Amino acid sequence: MKIKQKGNVLRIGVLLPSNTSYPIGRAFLKGLKEELVHIATEYAVELIKKFTKDRIEEALVKCFEFEEVDLVVGLISAAEMEEIDRIVAKYQKPVVACHLGEHIPKKLTTLQYVVPLSLDIWKDVYALGYYASQHFGSTAVLCESFYEAGFGFGALFDLGMKAFNPESQLYFRIVPHGRAMEEAAYTDLLADLTVEQVDFVVALFHGQEAALFASAYRHADVSELPLVGLPFFRESSGIGQDQTTDTSAMSAFFSVELLGQSTVTGLYEAFGRLLADRIQGMLHEETEQVEEVENFTSILSCVQWNGQADMETFKFAIATTGVKSLDDLIVEGFENQISTGWSNSYLAN
């Protein structure tokens, strides 16, 4: 959708989460501004604590009616896009909804004014599950927080495992909601796990919870097994970094790589720059060409320990059947799945 700029200055409304585990809103806006520095722009920033339907509508009305912006962008969950499209129909101006792709994907109705910009992490989590099942074994335990359980990561990882081996088994263990900051909760989570029971362990945590899990994991019986997770866990736990968390007992940590960044703030700065590229295309009415492909390639990464952490990145391709894209295959696999619980974007608590 083309941006219809009213004057010489491009006015952009920006919706950002105010309650986050990392300064992702600030990093996102920094990347956006730096990439658009050569364009005359003004920004109207709205900080939102909870992205409810009413709060989103209030912010959009303020941006379009009071601030008179030409478009709105922001870190907006995929779960809200259809509702936002309905709200902004009367303004006939675009909203670029940026998200990681952390929710279970679903087939959307045609969006007239909302332009999704997703990092499609759901594909990478699927690929990670496929890779882990192929290389480590068919039985795993996924440990996660109550918060992470509200997104589609676990279900996507399980679907990836089963795509390689339909008989694979993924068991779930969740830290009780009221015990997230207790060290003993993570020891209890791993206490009865043995290397005879599972082939590898999946960890879905971020922030202090990731550090607590990593500390408990190095003393667990399963610490010699491959550990699989997302980059948010890796950064917070200190894995592959010269920090206080002792990970010498672990064999290897496997993750995905997003936009070539090793930190969460770096990722969101890069995401802001990616958004800027999309905005420049919309100013000139350029549309993205989407080609049907038979292979999906995910960039995975591995940290090995041999006295010293050594990071390695590599590409991993999944061949799909016939002419169907990976998007279609995964979405079909979720036709009867219950939708995930949180409406906010990941890391926007």
UniProtKB/TrEMBL annotation:
Residues 52-258 form the Leucine-binding protein domain. Belongs to the leucine-binding protein family. Keywords: Signal. The lineage of its organism: Bacteria, Pseudomonadati, Bacteroidota, Sphingobacteriia, Sphingobacteriales. It holds the Pfam family Peripla_BP_6. It comes from Sphingobacterium tabacisoli. This is ABC transporter substrate-binding protein.
